[in-house]
Amino acid sequence: MPVRPLSAELAKKASEELNEDPQKLEDSLQHLKEWISKQPHLRARTDDQWLAAFLRGCKFSMERTKQKIDLYYSLRTTAPELCSLKHTDPKFMEIIDLGVGVVLPKSSNPTDPRVILVRLGAYDPSKYSINEIMSVNYVTQQIMLMEDDNFVVAGGVSVMDLQGATTAHFTQINPMLMKKMSVSFQDASPVRMKGAHYVNTPTFFETIFNFMKNFLNEKNKKRLYVHNTDFESLYKFVPKEILPAEYGGNGGSIQELIDLSKKKVLEYKTWLDEDWQYRTDESKRPGKPQTAEDIFGVEGSFRQLEFD
Fold first, then answer.
1. Strand, helix or coil for residue 194
2. How far is C-alpha 166 from the chain's CA centre?
3. Domain CRAL-TRIO: where (predicted)?
4. pLDDT for 20 beyond 90
5. How many CB atoms lie within 10 A of CB 12?
6. In the chain, beta strands by DSSP E
7. Rg for the chain (alpha carbons), in Å?
C-alpha cells in the first residue's frame, strides 16, 4: 500500500523540517527496499508506511535511516526483553486495561506533536514487570508509527504522572535495563521526542531523575521538565483541553482512551502476528556479529540505583 497522504499542514511541516518531497519519498522507499533485500542478516518490514516513518524520523538522511532500521531489528535479537510480551498474551490486554499508557487523540493545532500519558502507579509491580509494561508500550508505538501522522512528522510528547508510584516500581529498572531503554528510545526508534513532563513526583524522584539523565544525550536532557503538582506550568506545553476528563480536560475519559487502545491492537492483530518474525540473524551479519556488549556496554560497569 502506498504512503498515506499527509494533511496540507503536516505536508508543509514535513517539507520544511524533514526535507520531504513526494518524489524523494518514493525514490527513497525504493532504495531502502533494495538495500534491505541485500542484507543477509536483516529481516525487516518493507511496508511503505513503515519505512516512511523511519525516513521522516531521520529527516531523509539515507545513511541514518539504514543505521536506525538495522539497530531497531538488532535490538529484537540483543535485547528481546524490550518486546517480550506478545500481543496475544492475556497479560498484554490486562496491562492495556489498567491504562498505564494512553494516547491522547486530541490536539490543539493540526501540527502539534502527539501526547502520550503514562501513569506508572496504575500497575502493581508485584504482578507485572517493567519489561511487560515496555512490551505493551513497544506495540503501541508500532501502531502509532503506522497510522499517526502527527506522531511521525511532528513528534511525541510524554506526560508521566507518578501519582501512586513507589520505590518498588523503580527498583524494577536496573542500570543495564535503563541503558537498553535509552538506546531503544534515542538511537533505534524513528520517533522525534519533543519533551517528557513529570507530574505528581514522589519524594525520592530526584534520585531517579538524576540517575536517568546519565543515559540521555544533551538534546534529550534539555527536553525533560519536572512540574510536580504545578499543572499550570504543564499547560504551557500540553494544553489542558486535550487532557483526559480526569485531568480537567476534554480529551475523553481514561476508560474511553483504554477502549481505543484495545480496538487498535485488535485491528492490527494480523500485522502484529506477522511482525514477530522480523529481527536480525547476527550469525549472518557481514563482518562481526553485533552483541549486547557491543551495543550496551558491559553489565558490571553500571552503578546500581540506590534510594536514601
1. strand
2. 23
3. 91-255
4. yes
5. 14
6. 42-43, 101-104, 114-119, 156-161, 193-199, 224-228, 279-280
7. 19
CB 297 within 8 A of CB 170: no
Nearest alpha carbon to residue 44 among 55, 52, 33, 28: 33
* Average pLDDT taken over every residue of the chain: 94
Q: DSSP string covering 199-229, please? A: ES--TTHHHHHHHHHTTS-HHHHTTEEEEET
**One-letter amino acid for residue 157 of the chain:** V
In the structure grid, which three cell numbers stand for residue 179, read together?
541503558
**pLDDT range class, residue 75, cuts 50, 70, 90:** very high
301: pLDDT strictly greater than 80: no
Q: How far is the C-alpha of 301 from the C-alpha of 149, rounded, in Å?
A: 39
38, three cell numbers: 541485500
- Under 8 Å between Cβ of 278 and 73: yes
pTM of the model: 0.94
SS3 content of the chain, % helix, strand, coil (to 5): 55, 10, 35
Q: List residues bridging with 118 in a β-sheet.
A: 101, 160
Burial class (CB in 10 A: 0-12, 13-18, 19+), 245: middle
Distance of alpha carbon 166 from alpha carbon 78, whole angstroms:
29
Indicate left, alpha or beta for 60 from its phi (over 0: left) and psi (-120 to 50: alpha). left
- With CA atoms as reference, report the closest residue to 45 among 254, 276, 296: 276
DSSP 287: S
For residue 89, the SS3 value is coil
Output the DSSP codes for 96-143. HHHTSEEEE---SSTTPPEEEEEEGGGS-TTTS-HHHHHHHHHHHHHH
Reading the block at residue 254, the C-alpha cell is 481514561
Among candidate residues 247, 179, 265, the one with its CA nearest the CA of residue 217: 179
Pairing of strands 114-119, 279-280: unpaired
